[in-house]
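name: query_chain
kind: protein
chains: 1
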Amino acid sequence: MKLQKVTTKPSPSRRRYDDACGTAHALDLVGERWALLVMRELMLGSKRFSTLRADLPGISANVLTQRLEGLEAAGLVVRRKLPPPSGAQVYELTEWGYEAEPIIQALGRWATRSPDHDPSLPLSATSIILSFRTMIDAERAQGIEARIGFRIGAESFLGIFSGGAFTIGRGSVEGADLVFTGSAVALAAAVYGGQDLDALAKAGALAIEGDRALAERFTTLFPLPAKAPRPGDEEQCEAPSKVDEIPAQRPL
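structure:
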């Protein structure tokens, strides 16, 4: 049976691979520079254009406009107006767009094994909160029953440990057992960089309100995976090469 060619409306500035593989089409959809990061910034809810640009400081207004247009054309992002009195225009992911979160999580977890990954580089509030969703170690979190708030810039987030589960997203910090206030970089320094909470507090980078023991424990719940060895590293040389075990094959 001959497959019928399906044509779709091309999105602005999109380069296509013309390859039937699903992975190739995924890159057709989100492979342009900044596209996947724009989606990441919308994973916790809608944002205005100005907020998106502020959270992605390396992107120009023109490129952000192009990426949003491309993601809209692909069916991953929609625009809508907030109800009065605001009336502002915001961008948000479609239901299908939100389905990309496990992909972004898997890609992020995989990339942290890179010897070149630097967790001290700048990151957005959404990025650090999504990293907590991604890197949480369920075994280490066993037995915690608590509400932990985060004030990062003008945004507030709430993490809830309950019944062995951990959820985190936008929300009020009122009534939380513990509240961190500071930048995403300071939080990353405490959680992923192993920096002392007292030192960060003394420097004015991170304020802690509430259960101090819980704060200390929280910073241990998100271990980074071991770095992948570079080709030629001593560990790589000592291990038998699986490639060498496969007989060479002649080209067809």
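note: Confidence is low (pLDDT under 50) at residues 1-8, 239-252.
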